[in-house]
Q: What sequence folds into this?
């Protein structure tokens, strides 16, 4: 087992911080001695989060709103002239009912998960470039490994992010900015609480945050967890007919 590492004394901006993984990660990073600027849409939830630790600063941001980019960047600058790391965690999930499809859902999910992440990065880049050793962390999903039932919108948005971050990593070598993609499996959050299907190896937000904080400190190109789910999905990906006709349908609505 590899040694546990910690990030300490940094300024970190974290999106999607009001619930679930983001909330647990904000508390974890703040407890390690970092200044965590926590963002989400709801100011009240952020204020409640900030009350949990002196190192957490609440900053409301609707990542789907491109018109908020300049305002949020100015607000970040009021707290710090730089960002050492940005953790792009905010996202949403909706499922497609193929018998009564809402095709507009595709755009809604992509607007938040993909373009919202781009908007957040547009906010952060100038502040990252002012850091001595900047780091971009994108939270994607193990759902990109194989196709899941009803996940056309969610999976597509996350697959787009995977490619975006992989490509971005290449272009940012010359700027000495590291890019890490984190692919969680099933984590108990308000979003996954709505799921009506089997979620193998489900873990708590706190356990997920512990693993992510350790990975963030090590700056890998990619970190997938839990390992058991990762390798099962990758193995099944080599036999797509079996996955598509037998396994994936069995994980659908119960």
A:
């Amino acid at each position: 087992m590899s040694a546990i590492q910690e990030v300490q004394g940094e300024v970190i901006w974290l999106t999607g911080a009001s619930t679930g993984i983001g909330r647990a990660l904000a508390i974890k990073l703040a407890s390690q001695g970092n200044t965590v600027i926590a963002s989400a849409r709801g100011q009240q939830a952020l204020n409640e989060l900030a009350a949990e630790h002196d190192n957490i600063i609440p900053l409301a941001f609707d990542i789907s709103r491109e018109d908020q980019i300049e305002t949020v960047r100015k607000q970040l600058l009021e707290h710090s002239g730089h960002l050492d790391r940005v953790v792009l965690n905010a996202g949403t999930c909706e499922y497609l009912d193929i018998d009564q499809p809402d095709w507009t859902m595709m755009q809604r999910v992509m607007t938040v998960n993909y373009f919202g992440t781009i908007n957040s990065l547009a906010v952060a880049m100038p502040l990252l470039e002012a850091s001595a050793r900047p780091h971009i962390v994108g939270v994607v999903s193990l759902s990109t490994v194989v196709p899941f039932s009803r996940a056309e919108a969610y999976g597509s948005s996350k697959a787009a992010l995977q490619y975006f971050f992989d490509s971005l990593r290449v272009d940012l070598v010359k700027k000495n900015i590291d890019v890490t993609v984190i692919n969680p499996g099933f984590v108990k959050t308000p979003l996954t609480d709505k799921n009506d299907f089997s979620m193998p190896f489900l873990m708590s937000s706190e356990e997920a945050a512990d693993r992510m904080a350790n990975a963030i400190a090590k700056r890998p190109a990619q970190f997938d967890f839990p390992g058991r789910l990762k390798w099962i999905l990758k193995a099944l990906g080599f036999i797509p007919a079996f996955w598509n006709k037998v396994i994936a349908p069995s994980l659908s609505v119960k």
Q: What stands out?
A: Strands lie at 11-15, 35-39, 56-58, 85-88, 135-139, 178-184, 222-225. The first strand starts at residue 11 and ends at 15. The first helix runs from residue 20 to 31.
